[in-house]
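Q: We require from you a single protein entry containing the residue sequence and its fold in token form, and nothing else.
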Amino acid sequence: MFRAKFVLLLALNSLIYLLLAAEPNLEWWKNAVFYQIYPRSFMVSYPNCFFSSPPSFDRLLQDSNNDGIGDLKGIQSKLDHLVDAGVTALWLSPIYKSPQIDHGYDISDYRDVDSLFGTLDDFKSLLAEAHNKGKYVYIPLGSECENHFLGLKVILDFVPNHTSDEHDWFKRSLVNESKYADYYVWREGRNGNKDPPNNWISYFHGPAWTFNEARQLWYLHQFAKGQPDLNYRSSDLVKEMKDVLTYWLDLGVDGFRVDIISALFEDEQFRNEDQSNLPNVSADDREYLIHTYTEDQPETYDMVYQWRILLDDYQREKGGDARVMMTESYAPLRKLFGYYGNETHDGAHFTFNFWFITELNVESSAHDIKFVIDKWLTYMPWRHTANWVLGNHDQHRVASRYGSKRVDGLCMLSMLLPGVAVTYNGEEIGMEDGEVTWTEAQDPQACNGKEKDFLKNSRDFQRTPYQWNGSTNAGFNKGAKPWLPVGSKYQTVNLATEKTDTKSHYGLYQQVVKLRKRNTLKYGDMATIAFSDSVLGLTSDILNTSSAISLDAYESLILTTS
């Protein structure tokens, strides 16, 4: 067999070429780049487009309601950035109506948008723009409004484990209204109802139970006491939540990221959990216990399978592309892969792979990385799709965990491995954690704890505003003080600066996103090689075409095609 061979070293401004091969039929999501947007921190709203003359740059940066919080119109104004970056789908962290004690993960109405972010009509406008139905999107540094056919998929966060205590369902459950009495997890306490039903601990510290005087029972909340857990052993509740999914599908969303799926069911006998005996963990920390009875229960998988049936049936009835479900769990491998499905039922299209976060760190060698990659690809259920996640709104930014010099190598790795790549907003420009003090803290996970544990518990650092340019507040807004401080490096680490430099983090990001769409990497059989502790190689073969990629200390890429 004749093989033409060449080697290409990728300087960050190089062009990249791969031989083309026959293209199988691949569903849209299987090689997608999902881009997570944390709405509070992405972009504030902008003025309407005036066609008679272009608006000034200052007006584009205006915070129209002067609250220092990003919103849906702000996101819509930046859709062009997502197209430029090459992403396939935007995933929105919660935008539902909420009292915002946990920044939107405490939902008071699943069928409406919180006024903090805009209106339901604003969401429909964003959805239409992303789906090619909108008309005009600003180029922030340009001089004209231009028509862009964006073609982006839109994914919503679905938060099924709990609601806000201000939700109408909970208010009705409080008064024991028949249909809603069992919508939540209620339980009689111990010692004459004086103590919680068991020793379970909240993610936000302290007991996972709160006593309610009206019902004379304790209700479960695995997060804040204002976030009561829903009871999926109620058939009425199960139907209600399926109707919520259908409601958003009817509006046109392309799928859902299912939040904290691992917590959906609890042990029906409400047994105490054993102590973990971990060092330096206080008795009110969640890590104090082993969560045998509050995470990844058998019934949870069946609920995921039911939701998958709903999504697949919807596609068959309405047509169009697959409506996607992706699930969040930090479970051990054996339990984690159950979310993909079993011999008789399909589950999530993919369950997040957090191993680049949980299993690797700044000290990890090429051999360690190879082990983690190979383990996922080896044990992932047959015919399912892999995915690779570097960070999210709950984890310190990858540039802070690994160091800014290693961001590019990790970006290459996540993009060039087979399957789905997930980017948290800001990773594409190498954003690091912001600087937030205890007095500036917003995250209830930290605020409900002790000041001495702030650095360990807070998620504020990775949620600071997106750094668009080097102007006031990094271009995020030019009105009120942002809800969290802007990162101190915004004058050098920002999108506008990096777009002018092909050797920047963003320049490389664009190139590897384009590269991952080549057939050799999309459809080839991937293998890893650890040449040394500091050099990791990837090979991908398809028909008569093969590619080899070497990551030397995370900072360079060698591409061989033969």
Observations:
- The longest helix spans residues 298-318.
